[in-house]
């Protein structure tokens, strides 16, 4: 009986410590990757300013070619919407809408992963020599949920490789058309 009581008290203390520490963890998860593409911003911009065009270089669609995609709003720019649905756990279900677009410079989107939460993604295009530095970023407010804050620590590991793969795909696509 005494052993069970010690185990329970130890578990309770451990849980309280983990919850307490979570409140000093960052309240926001941020991930970004960059690549230089040998093309001017005006050649790259259409591929990040249209959800339909992202289909050509997305790092996630190769995981589940059966992903169901639907589009709404205009074909590009603010209001262009992508809805996706997949049974693959690394693809999932959600929507993405372009909320801000500055021609040849920047695109910002709102992501909604349903019960998994929301986030903001962005693309920045900066001329660099004869090419363009493309930065793909992501940020999500984690709120006060202790589990979300612990998961936020893993976001770069979970998403960073996909962002790099997507940028590599975009580079291959754009430079292959030159």
TrEMBL record:
Superkingdom of this protein's organism: Bacteria
Lineage: Bacteria, Pseudomonadati, Pseudomonadota, Alphaproteobacteria, Rhodobacterales
Pfam families: Polyketide_cyc2
InterPro entries reported in the protein's UniProt record: Polyketide_cyclase/dehydratase, START-like_dom_sf
Transmembrane segments: none
Name under which the protein is recorded: Polyketide cyclase / dehydrase and lipid transport
Species in which this protein is naturally found: Ruegeria faecimaris
Coiled-coil annotated residue ranges, if any: none
CDD domains tied to this protein: SRPBCC_1
